[in-house]
């Protein structure tokens, strides 16, 4: 049989590197604008999961949590699920069934999941793991610019700019091929300034490092704005012509003079000034960009932190200027599209607000229901989980594309909440930690086994193409929703053909902020992706935003006054060390996929707790020893990695593992008041040496069930 | 609230933040006519980088929205503690359940002939304390070519640097042998003076002014030794004195400041509280913003039923001038410095680190006791100033290798290694987990270019930052090949 090759994109992060995948599962990187022929180790090995022996290939059901799973056919499984949903709703009302989605789902799945929740289940209880990821940046961008598209310009613009300030991102590990664009800035003599408590691989490549105390990102942002004003770098004409609200913002920033900021953040005044000077110099030349990633965003004040940085970029007059502006580096593969089409608690397709009467009217018409039949906004991800098992909380939970038992903060509590459900249904290609807690597990396809679209970090809509056949017995998420809808009385309206769903999505998004109405699969094929908004099949997508104005009622960007306060939890005598969490190069998200790729698992088999030699000495810990991080909420275990690349008052632990190794057992679910983002990036812990050697975490041993695995 | 300066205005904000229902009736008396402004930024106003209007911190709309009765230009004249009321300069009594004194301090005007004309400052003489003082100085700058700042403390140095930024010829006149003697040791003082001179601020030490007068139409300061120093403008920066007249007259316990307990409450009267520069806690009065704001936060919590208490503040003095970088904290000139490692380890005295580079205006001195920083001087843009300040602030343990406190990176630095020296197990390409050994193996197997290596190992295909290292390894491998492999084939026939 001849080898067929399909051009597609990597299944992992939002860079969505272009790659060719052939029918022998060979991967070749493509010269796509975001990756320019580059791939990281995760991308290179992505196809190994297609033939993985750990795939789920049959629906699994069990009568009670203590029992073992038994394989059943699809009809039986879907019948069990729909019966459970009906029972919950009969007894407790529509909100008793909740839906939890993911930022890795295709646009079609995200859209269909939202429609399924609102029209079939008629529940308001739907949210997704993007709440833990992009929600702070999204909330801040929406209120400042009237639109939330991660990067308001194509990625290639970055390489051409003169200065970049990256707040809280380690792209050298999280999306390595992206580094090309930043290295180009540096190599042309521009400034690459990185703010991070650690001297990461990204920092190593930077021209300047702002090694801030965890949890003080907003103070730093306010200080940089203060300097911009006092040192005369504000673009007063831009502020007057294109923005509103500067005076209120300045009144707060006046209280954050650089010397005060230095004391709180630990970043020297001279470094603060140099950073602002570099951005201003960039602006006078090729351009200047302020970027945020999860380090700045995953805080109890993440929305305000991003706002503080947007305020800085507005004061400098960057947004809308060539090769300039503010951008957020979206994390998950479809973190952008996933937040636009209705799996978010407060949202309808097209980035419409669910409490906006006109939005409800439009979407209801597309869905063929009365606007009043659509539920209102529901609880955010962590709050949804917290409500499980309480008075009017969910009794049944349907999970697609998320491993929330690992990725949620205070995950010990989350596991306990999930345990109190009457029915937990998890759709996953693998037996994830969350699936292992379920009553029903439905095996679904992977990225290269199905068609669909995703929207990358630039707002460019791309096609994921089918390159391999799924194992027998596996269905797509869309087929699952179609089958459930039919069993719940909706024979029509839930096709399983992604293309038909995309066409409906186009109509539902028409006129919205994220308008896809002009995008067709053919255009994506011929144009190498299409940027949204794209309001006409005959007009181009808008690659660069804001040149002529902002999509706000008066066309002006909004300065929003924000002030800083202490982190939700500070260190004290009992918990004297800051913990910050993050990613490493070999793994993606909760590790459900990458921990099953042998070469990645071998390269990073367990979480390593990074600590400074001084902290290691004072804690009595040696490199390579097993340690336990303990917080007020729980503990997690990892191997000490002693390194001088981290502040002596801080430890770092990646979050890609489950069980005892899940750092989110330790993290703090203090939520941002606006975005409901948990404070993943800072909490207080103590370090304990582990006397007993714990056996390495083995997913297969822990989650064995009846029946063969392959 | 008697007083609406840095402490008072912060207190009102903190109070309302904890009282969103606005259950407390709040009246604020501010003796100055200006609304809440940021006193810290006055040197920037003097320097011209900010306009007076730019330092406003709280708009009047905030007081209206928060239902706070703000009375500017009105002061509390006396306190009738028996009837729990105050008498104001508007001639009315206002009752209180709680009275917060945040009256701040007054500039000290030294007893020098000619400095006063009657009760007022003489013409051409100014203090530098309020926004109005600042405006007064700016208003008269037109005719000023040469200014003298009397007093070389923190405020004097900031004022002088500010004026120099306006192109005025400035001289700081200081009565003792070094600038900022309360914060600096002799060497730091000298280096600071040098830095200021390079910024067009002259410094005259050990200079005692005897009188201020006029000679041939030129205002002059006459020194003890008879020297005449011309000064179109004389700015007095001789320190401040807590403004405690009100409290003293009301019979409250007053030492240097109004004596308060850990609830910021007068030890004499539970209904009266004091914060900021007029308050004295644990024998200390503070003249900086940070303690005033800490006190404001604690008192707001106390008055709204919270459990906060005040435990004193750690002082970090930070000079605020764009191009003179100085931080000083704690004890900076200990008398019991030790020079034997054993003594330092046993806590027998203060361990002192010191680095001086006068040519660059750099001076760093760190005092350590029992593994904790108890004092420091960081002058001249030290890169570790943030680290040292935080360790001092939080009483953190100092690094085992003390050099990290002065030379960042010298301890942690990964020295540049010649790629040829890399061990086989060393990672070259982090993105794809490719070691130097893997690259060498690829070369030995025939890879002759970076692209060849990428083709078989994937090195360089991630972020691309290892490209140079891989190229060097390829070049090294090539140079280690025999010059003419063809010869070998001839010499060793099969």
TrEMBL record, chain A:
GO terms for molecular function: 4 iron, 4 sulfur cluster binding; metal ion binding; molybdopterin cofactor binding; NADH dehydrogenase activity. Pfam families: Molybdop_Fe4S4, Molybdopterin, Molydop_binding. Residues 3-52 form the 4Fe-4S Mo/W bis-MGD-type domain. This is Nitrite reductase. InterPro entries: Asp_de-COase-like_dom_sf, MoPterin_dinucl-bd_dom, Mopterin_OxRdtase, Mopterin_OxRdtase_4Fe-4S_dom, Prok_molybdopt-oxidoreductase. The lineage of its organism: Bacteria, Bacillati, Actinomycetota, Actinomycetes, Jiangellales. Residues 328-350 are annotated as: Disordered. GO terms for cellular component: membrane.
Automatic annotation (TrEMBL), chain B:
Belongs to the nitrite and sulfite reductase 4Fe-4S domain family. Residues 427-475 form the BFD-like [2Fe-2S]-binding domain. It comes from the Bacteria. Keywords: FAD, Flavoprotein, Heme, Iron, Iron-sulfur, Metal-binding, Oxidoreductase. Pathway: Nitrogen metabolism; nitrate reduction (assimilation). It comes from Phytoactinopolyspora halophila. InterPro entries: BFD-like_2Fe2S-bd_dom (IPR007419), BFD-like_2Fe2S-bd_dom_sf (IPR041854), FAD/NAD-bd_sf (IPR036188), FAD/NAD-binding_dom (IPR023753), FAD/NAD-linked_Rdtase_dimer_sf (IPR016156), NasD-like (IPR052034), Rubredoxin_C (IPR041575). Residues 3-296 form the FAD/NAD(P)-binding domain. Its cofactor is siroheme; FAD; [4Fe-4S] cluster. One of its GO terms (molecular function) is oxidoreductase activity. PANTHER family: NITRITE REDUCTASE (NADH) LARGE SUBUNIT. This is NAD(P)/FAD-dependent oxidoreductase. Residues 316-384 form the NADH-rubredoxin oxidoreductase C-terminal domain.
């Amino acid at each position: 049989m001849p080898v067929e090759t399909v051009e597609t994109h990597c299944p992992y992060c939002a860079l969505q590197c272009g790659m060719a995948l052939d029918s022998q599962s060979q991967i070749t990187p493509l010269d796509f604008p975001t990756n320019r022929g580059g791939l990281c180790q995760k991308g290179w090995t992505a196809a190994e999961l297609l033939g993985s022996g750990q795939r789920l290939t049959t629906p699994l059901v069990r009568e009670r949590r203590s029992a073992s799973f038994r394989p059943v056919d699809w009809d039986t499984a879907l019948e069990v699920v729909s019966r459970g949903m009906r029972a919950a709703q009969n007894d407790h009302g529509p909100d008793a069934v909740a839906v939890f989605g993911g930022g890795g789902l295709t646009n079609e799945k995200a859209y269909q999941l939202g429609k399924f929740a609102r029209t079939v289940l008629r529940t308001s209880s739907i949210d997704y793991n993007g709440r833990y990821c992009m929600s702070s940046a999204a909330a801040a961008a929406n209120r400042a610019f009237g639109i939330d598209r991660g990067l308001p310009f194509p990625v290639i613009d970055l390489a051409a700019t003169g200065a970049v300030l990256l707040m809280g991102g380690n792209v050298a590990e999280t999306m390595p091929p992206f580094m090309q664009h930043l290295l180009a800035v540096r190599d042309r003599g521009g400034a690459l300034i990185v703010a991070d408590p650690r001297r990461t691989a990204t920092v190593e490549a930077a021209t300047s490092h702002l090694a801030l105390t965890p949890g003080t990102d907003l103070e730093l942002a306010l200080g940089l704005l203060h300097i911009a004003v006092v040192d005369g770098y504000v673009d007063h004409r831009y502020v007057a012509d294109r923005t509103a609200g500067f005076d209120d913002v300045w009144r707060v920033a006046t209280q954050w003079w650089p010397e005060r900021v230095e004391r709180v953040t630990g970043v020297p005044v001279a470094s603060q000034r140099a950073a602002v000077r570099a951005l201003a110099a960039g602006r006078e030349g090729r351009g200047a960009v302020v970027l945020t990633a999860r380090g700045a965003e995953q805080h109890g004040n993440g929305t305000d932190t991003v706002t503080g940085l947007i305020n800085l970029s507005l004061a400098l007059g960057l947004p809308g200027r060539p090769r300039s502006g503010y951008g957020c580096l979206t994390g998950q593969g479809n973190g952008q599209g996933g937040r636009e089409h209705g799996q978010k608690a407060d949202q309808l397709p097209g980035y419409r607000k669910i409490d906006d009467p006109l939005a409800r009217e439009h979407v209801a018409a597309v869905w063929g229901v009365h606007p009043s039949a659509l539920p209102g906004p529901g609880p955010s991800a962590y709050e949804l989980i917290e409500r499980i098992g309480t008075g009017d909380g969910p009794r049944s939970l349907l999970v697609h594309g998320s491993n929330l038992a690992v990725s949620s903060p205070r995950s010990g509590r989350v596991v306990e909440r999930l345990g109190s459900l009457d029915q937990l249904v998890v759709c996953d290609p693998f037996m994830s930690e969350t699936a292992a807690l379920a009553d029903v597990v439905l095996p679904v396809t992977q990225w290269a086994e199905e068609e669909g679209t995703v929207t990358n970090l630039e707002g460019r809509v791309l096609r994921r193409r089918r390159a391999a056949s799924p194992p027998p017995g596996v269905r797509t998420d869309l087929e699952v929703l179609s089958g459930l809808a039919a069993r719940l009385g909706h024979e029509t309206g839930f096709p399983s053909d992604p293309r038909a769903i995309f066409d409906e999505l186009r109509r539902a998004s028409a006129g919205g902020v994220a308008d896809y109405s002009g995008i067709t699969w053919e255009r994506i094929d011929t144009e190498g992706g299409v940027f949204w908004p794209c309001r006409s099949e005959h007009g181009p997508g808008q690659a660069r935003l804001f040149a002529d104005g902002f999509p706000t009622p008066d066309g002006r960007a909004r300065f929003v006054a924000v002030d800083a306060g202490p982190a939700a939890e500070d260190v004290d005598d009992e918990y004297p060390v800051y913990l910050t969490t993050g990613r490493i190069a070999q793994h993606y998200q909760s590790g459900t996929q990458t921990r099953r790729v042998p070469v990645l698992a071998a390269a990073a088999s367990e979480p390593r707790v990074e600590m400074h030699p001084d902290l290691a000495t004072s804690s009595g810990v040696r490199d390579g020893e097993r340690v336990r991080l303990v917080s007020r909420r729980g503990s997690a275990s990892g191997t000490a990695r002693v390194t001088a690349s981290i502040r002596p008052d801080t430890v770092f632990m990646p979050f890609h593992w489950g069980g005892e190794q899940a750092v989110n057992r330790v993290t703090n679910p203090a939520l941002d008041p606006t975005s409901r983002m948990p404070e993943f990036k800072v909490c207080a812990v103590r370090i304990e040496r582990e006397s007993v050697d714990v056996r390495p975490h083995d997913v297969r041993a822990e989650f064995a069930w009846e029946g063969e695995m392959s | 609230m008697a007083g609406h300066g840095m402490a008072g205005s912060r207190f009102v904000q903190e109070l309302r933040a904890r009282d969103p229902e606005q259950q407390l009736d709040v009246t604020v008396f501010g003796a100055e006519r200006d609304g809440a402004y940021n006193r810290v930024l006055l040197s920037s106003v003097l320097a011209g980088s900010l306009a007076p209007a730019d330092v406003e911190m709280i708009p009047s709309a905030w007081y209206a929205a928060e239902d706070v009765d703000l009375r500017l230009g009105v002061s509390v004249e006396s306190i009738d503690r028996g009837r729990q009321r105050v008498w104001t300069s508007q001639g009315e009594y206002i009752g209180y359940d709680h009275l917060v004194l945040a009256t701040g301090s007054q500039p000290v005007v030294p007893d020098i002939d000619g400095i006063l004309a009657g009760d007022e400052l003489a013409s051409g003489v100014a203090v530098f304390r309020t926004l109005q003082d600042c405006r007064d100085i700016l208003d008269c700058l037109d005719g000023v070519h040469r200014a003298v700042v009397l007093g070389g403390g923190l405020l004097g140095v900031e004022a002088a640097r500010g004026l120099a930024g306006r192109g005025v010829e400035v001289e700081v006149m200081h009565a003792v042998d070094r600038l900022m003697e309360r914060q600096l040791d002799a060497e730091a003082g000298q280096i600071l003076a040098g830095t200021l001179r390079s910024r067009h601020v002259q410094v005259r030490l050990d200079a005692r002014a005897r009188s201020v007068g006029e000679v041939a139409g030129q205002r002059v300061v006459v020194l003890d030794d008879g020297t005449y120093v011309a000064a179109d403008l004389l700015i007095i920066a001789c320190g401040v004195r807590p403004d405690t007249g009100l409290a003293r007259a009301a019979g409250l316990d007053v030492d240097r400041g109004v004596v308060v307990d850990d609830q910021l409450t007068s030890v004499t009267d539970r209904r009266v509280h004091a914060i900021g520069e007029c308050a004295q806690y644990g024998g200390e009065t503070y003249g900086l913003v940070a303690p005033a704001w800490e006190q404001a936060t604690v008192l707001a919590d106390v008055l709204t039923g919270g459990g906060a208490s005040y435990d004193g503040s750690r002082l970090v003095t930070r000079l605020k001038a764009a191009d003179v970088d100085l931080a000083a904290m704690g004890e900076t000139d200990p008398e019991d410095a030790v020079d034997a490692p054993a003594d330092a380890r046993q806590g027998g005295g203060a361990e002192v680190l010191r680095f001086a580079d006068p040519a660059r205006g750099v001076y760093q001195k760190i005092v350590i006791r029992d593994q904790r920083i108890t004092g420091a001087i960081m002058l001249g843009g030290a890169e570790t100033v943030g680290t040292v300040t935080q360790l001092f602030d939080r009483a953190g343990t100092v690094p085992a290798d003390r050099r990290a406190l002065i030379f960042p990176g010298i301890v942690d630095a990964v020295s540049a290694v010649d790629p040829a020296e890399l061990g086989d197990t060393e990672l070259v390409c982090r993105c794809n987990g490719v070691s130097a050994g893997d690259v060498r193996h690829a070369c030995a197997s025939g890879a002759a270019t970076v692209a060849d290596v990428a083709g078989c190992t994937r090195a360089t295909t991630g972020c691309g930052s290892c490209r140079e290292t891989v190229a060097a390894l390829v070049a090294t491998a090539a140079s280690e090949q025999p010059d003419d492999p063809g010869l070998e084939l001839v010499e060793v026939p099969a």
